[in-house]
Amino acid sequence: MLCKEVKTKIVKDNQAHAQDSGSPEVQIALITERINGLIKHFAIHKQDHSSRSGLMKLVGQRKRLLGYLKKKEFNRYEKIIQKLGLRK
Fold it and tell me: What is the pLDDT of residues 64-85, one digit of tens each?
């Protein structure tokens, strides 16, 4: 779970305008941060299979959001991919 300060910082770093809190870029950045936290969790707790299914759901959700953004506005898609370092 993300603490309020981290979540606020991620939203501010990825928002398109001052009141933006739900654009695909913001959602993708928040999901990516949660995924990174779960990956660190699995380095310690290798047998936590129920959390692993939650990780797979988050990865699928991020994939759907990225596909939507790629289809609608490719420039924004490329920018968020570069910023988060998702595709090499």
Answer: 999 999 999 999 999 999 999 9
Instruction: Just give the CATH number of 4-11+20-84.
Output: 1.10.287.10
**What's the first-to-final CA gap in the chain, in angstroms?**
27
**Residue 76 · residue 69 · CB < 8 Å:** yes
Q: Pull the structure tokens for residue 13.
A: 């770093």
What pLDDT is stored for residue 87 in this prediction? 84
pLDDT in tens, 14-35: 998 989 989 999 999 999 999 9
Distance CA(44)–CA(26), nearest Å, equals 28
Q: d(Cα 14, Cα 77) in Å, to the nearest integer? A: 12
* Domain definitions of the chain by residue range: 4-11+20-84
